[in-house]
Amino acid sequence: MFHFSLKIGFLAAITGLLYSSVAHAEPQTYFDTAASIEAPINSGRFGAAMDCSVGSETGGTSYIAIGAPDANSGAGAVYIYEAGASPTLVQTINGTGSYNFGTSVAFVNDFTGDNRQDLVVGELNSGLNIYRSTGSAPPFANCGQSSQGSGTDGFAKTMASRRAWGTTPVRLFVGAPDMDQIYGYNFDYSGGICGTLGGLGFDLQG
Questions:
Q1: Suppose 69 and one of 43, 77, 100, 134 were both cysteines; which one would form an S-S bond, judging by CB atoms 3.0 to 4.6 Å apart?
Q2: Rounded Cα distance, 87 and 161, in Å
């Protein structure tokens, strides 16, 4: 009886140790330490929004867009970096109003028909600013703005796109969380230098 109880106790102790080591194991990370990007301004909320492009369908330069919606006394700005081991600032896009330009950013594939990702920048409660890729310096040129926000609904606080190459239509989703709404858009390209922003709904299949 003594030996049996000892064996049971030993097994229980081993089981407890194994459980404790599994249940309380430290989380492991598998990312290498990345190079940091220093803000080119102070007090602009640099990094409040960001997105990264993937070049083109066949390769090419990738870019990082970083929003600083409080820059320029609240007009906002977006900083474009060429991606790499040491990202390089290649373009600064300044807001021209007082709507926190750069509150959200999203790269989209591809609404100008040049096989390169284009860029959409959100202004809080105001609208979306559309920039086409140029394939040269500076890498993005203004295509205009589509106004949508009511001024109080939090329009463009968040933004996301569905990315797909080829003839698949571009899909863009814009959050207005202060009104518990999400807007869905497509971009129609008809051969001009810029696409047209249109209503969509939320079909991700087409």
A1: 100
A2: 23
Residues 6+ apart with CB under 8 A from 122: 49, 102, 103, 104, 105, 106, 128, 129, 155, 156, 157, 159, 174
**pLDDT tens readout for residues 18-43:** 344 444 445 554 445 566 788 887 77
Q: Order of strands across the sheet with 181-188?
A: 158-162, 170-176, 181-188, 196-199
Q: What's this model's pTM, rounded to 2 decimal places?
A: 0.76
Is residue 69 scored above 90 in pLDDT? yes
**109: its two tokens:** 């594939």
DSSP string, the chain: -HHHHHHHHHHHHHHHHHHHHHHTPPP----PPPPP---SSSSS-TTSEEEE---BTTB---EEEEEETTTGGGTBEEEEEE-SSS-EEEEEEE--SSS-EEEEEEEES-SSSSSB-EEEEEETTTEEEEEEE-SSSSSEEEEEEEE---SSS-TTSEEEEE---TTPPEEEEEEEGGGTEEEEEEEE--SSSS-EEEE--S-S--
Task: Give the Cα separation of 56 and 167 in Å (integer).
Answer: 14
Q: Quote the CA–CA distance of 84 and 90 in Å, as a whole number.
A: 12
- Which residues contact residue 174 at a Cβ distance below 8 angstroms, ignoring those fewer than 6 apart? 104, 122, 128, 148, 155, 156, 158, 159, 182, 183, 184, 185
